[in-house]
Amino acid sequence: MKKRGLAALLNAAALLLTGTLCMLPAAAERSVFTVGFDAEFPPYGYQNEAGEYVGFDLSLAQEVCDRRGWELKKTPIDWDSKDMELKTGAIDCIWNGFTINGREDQYTWTVPYVDNSQVAVVRSDSDIQTLSGLSGKIVAVQADSSALAAFTGDDAEDANKELAETFKDLQQVGDYNSAFMNLESGAVDVICMDIGVANYEIQARGGKFRMLDEHISSEEYGVGFLKGNTELRDEVQETLFEMAADGTFARIAAEWELSDCVCLEAPVQTAPASADGTFTVGFDAEFPPYGYQNEAGEYVGFDLSLAQEVCDRRGWTLIKQPIDWDSKDMELKTGAIDCIWNGFTINGRENDYTWSVPYVDNSQVVVVKKGSEITSLGDLTGKVVAVQTDSSALAAFTGDDAEESNKALAAGFADLQQVGDYNSAFLNLESGAVDAICMDIGVAKYEIEKRGDQFVMLADHVSSEQYGIGFLKGNTALRDTVQETLFEMLDDGTFARIAEEWGLSDSVCLSRSTETKAETAAEEIPFTEKLSNICFQLLKGVGASLAIFFLTLLFALPLGLLIAAGKMSKFKPLSWLVTIYISIVRGTPLMLQLLVVFFGPYYVFGVQTSSAYRFYAVIIGFTLNYAAYFAEIYRSGIQAVPVGQHEACEILGYTKTQKFFKIVFPQMVKNIIPSITNEVITLVKDTSLAFAISYTEMFTLAKQVAAAQATILPLFIAGIFYYIFNAVVAFVMERIEKKLNYFR
Q: From CA 174, how far away is CA 226, in angstroms rounded?
């Protein structure tokens, strides 16, 4: 991925500041984990259509935080400022497809978790078929990226260096969205980039582009921490190992279609199935249609049919082991059973077992007697409701993750009774001992059908969940074998046939990978809907831009007047000091000044900054910058007042204060309105520079949305916003100017 170091602008900032050693936060006291990432780098980190920051790396970070009890803080950063963000403590790590190669000694790294390659992407109709076909072509790479390093870096292979010498031009672009716009328009012939990003972009942009088969180079991704921060690195790395051991890491990689790229492995894996060739499935024998005893005394059910098919294909002997549901964990831990396969709910137990992928989407529903006055969930108030012990229905009403509406509903029950099995529940319901049963929809359909015309199901669902096969935590080897066999059954239609036999075709959800964000992006969305979605996302940044604009004016306009007074002061030291200040502000970029204001406290005083300081730094930086320009405008306006006006004031006996506010100031304001208008309009556009210190405003959001949705439309919408805003500003200022021309 990116190997962009500090740009020349940031190098200049660093020369102005004196570095000191950073105090590392103690991991033991940690409650918030702040991840720095580039929000224009899908699928590792980007903004989705709902305006949320998502991506493979952010999903991993969220899982780490969930397991550690931390709050994840996602901080989009300017990639060129990543080192300063890390050193000042504004972020805890850089987690964003971050290349280890070439940076081994610059950070404290986790072990690699992604093997990544550099590939070439061309238009679908291009005549370029191999890397040698790049000769004489214009090639685009992201600035300071691994692709650039692969062609020009000190460690670049000789073959790649020689290939690069044959290019007509090697162009550097700021982001991949710009690169694809150049490729589509014909401004460049090929883009060299990371394979993971290439896969995402090609899929998101339809059939316009393709990838060459040959790879340019390979690299590894890791999570980068401040050099020496091994304590936090070890905590995160250990959690990643746990995720690898229980299959969570692989599941997240599959969701983001990166299964072929990941390389993280847990240090130790549990041994696979029994050496004697048996596969022992633990199940509740009173849970039809997933597992139960039929009239012939045989244990049958949907899950047992799946397990039998797996064993037939693997050459194992299936042992069906009915268990007491309350003892399921002890059965598994002692090795009495190999897995729990019995409509076993994943939700709420994600970290307790090593899970297969979900194979059933299940909901919790309410069953009542036919003719009951209960017709909706709201009618359960004051009623006696039965649920199975340690069931998803019980968790839906009383669990830590239960929805507030369900908790409130349960609080209104006359009683929430727990029963050992559903047969007892239906006996209670039929006799009137309870008024309703809450249970899994698959089981509910089976029971209602088997018990004739006595019961009905409410249309409202209480909650939804997913079923998986639960293995002993860490036993990924056996899980993978069983799961791969299920996938084989899915591919050849056996899984669907078994589901149909048990009347569960509408509930099954097994797939090799769940729908990914890239697939969602590739769906054809109506233009009006896409336009409204983009506008809604950008509105979140409009408030930030407006805040910068109005607060800067609020503070800079009066401050500029004070600075102008200092510049014209007859006290020379003050005048010289103000002159130097104005010279520095006008002679250096606003972006550099923002960096100094935000990172200066750390480099000068050793004080670590926080994300909360970003906004204040933006306002301080903008205020100091624009106050200097306003000061010069004020000074020119004051000096433009004719000398005769000053002499007349002296003759009339005006004090200096009276002269300034009654004579000079009104004339100055009238004279400077055109110049002030130009500065105010410039301020509207300059608000986009706030992202230099990772403060997300409207234009930054537009770039993030453009990168995620692979379209230039958000940038056009942002341009329209700026134009309308500036038109309003110009109109207001014009009205003020006309109002002040009272003598014409």
A: 25
User: What residues does 171 pair with on adjacent strands?
Assistant: 140
Torsion angles phi and psi, residue 291, rounded to 5: -165, 125
Six-digit token string for 428: 């209670």
Determine the length of the chain: 744
**Rounded Cα distance, 75 and 369, in Å:** 53
- Distance between CA atoms of 486 and 511, rounded to whole angstroms? 9
Q: Report the amino acid identity of residue 370.
A: K
Where is 456: in which H helix or E strand?
A: strand 455-471
- Measured between its terminal Cα atoms, the distance across the chain in Å is 64
Closest CA to 622 of 591, 649, 645, 601: 591
573 prior amide bond cis, ω within 30: no
Domain 527-740 has what CATH class? mainly alpha
CATH class, domain 116-215, is: alpha beta
CA distances 4 to 82, 144, 160, 175, 457, Å, are 9, 4, 19, 12, 59
Spatial distance between the Cα atoms of 140 and 198, rounded to a whole number of angstroms: 13
Q: Which two tokens stand for residue 144?
A: 């300071």
Tally of helices (H runs) and strands (E runs) in the chain: 27, 24
555: enclosing H helix or E strand = helix 527-567
296-305 CB contacts, 8 Å cutoff, 24+ apart: 301/342, 301/502, 302/498, 302/499, 302/502, 302/504, 303/341, 303/342, 303/343, 304/341, 305/498, 305/501, 305/502
The 3-state secondary structure of 637-685 reads HHHCCCHHHHHHHHHCCCCHHHHHHHHHHHHHHHHHHHHHHHHHHHHHH
In DSSP terms, 464 is beta-bridged to 363
Say whether pLDDT at 130 is over 70. Answer: yes
Task: Output DSSP code: residue 608.
Answer: P
Residues 6+ apart with CB under 8 A from 216: 117, 118, 119, 120, 131, 147, 150, 151, 160, 192
266-303 pLDDT, tens digit per residue, is: 664 444 555 678 999 999 888 888 888 888 888 999 99
- What is the maximum span of the chain, computed from C-alpha positions, in angstroms? 120
Tell the burial category of 463 from Cβ atoms under 10 Å away from its Cβ (0-12, 13-18, 19+).
Answer: buried
Taking 50 as the threshold, does the pLDDT of residue 517 lie above it? Answer: no
Round to whole Å and give the CA distance between 113 and 102. 16
Q: Is residue 524's pLDDT more than 80? A: no
The reply to whether domains 116-215 and 527-740 share a CATH topology is no
What are the start-end ranges of the E strands in 91-179?
A: 93-99, 108-109, 114-123, 138-142, 169-173
Distance, in Å, from the CA atom of 60 to the CA atom of 44, rounded to the nearest integer, reads 10
Residues whose CB falls within 8 Å of the CB of residue 471, separated by 6 or more in sequence, listed in order: 332, 338, 339, 353, 354, 355, 356, 478, 479, 482
Residue pointed to by tokens 């950070």: 107
pLDDT per residue as tens digits for the range 398-433: 877 778 888 889 999 998 888 877 787 888 888 888
With tokens 């009403």, the residue in question is 397
Burial class for 466, CB neighbours closer than 10 Å (0-12, 13-18, 19+): middle
CA distances to 38, 579, 687, 702 from 716, in Å: 22, 40, 17, 9
Residues 618, 624, 629, 631: is their CA dihedral positive or negative? positive
Domain boundaries, the chain: 116-215, 527-740
State the Cα–Cα distance between residues 161 and 171, nearest whole angstrom: 15
Dihedral Cα 651, 655, 657, 658, nearest 10 deg: -60
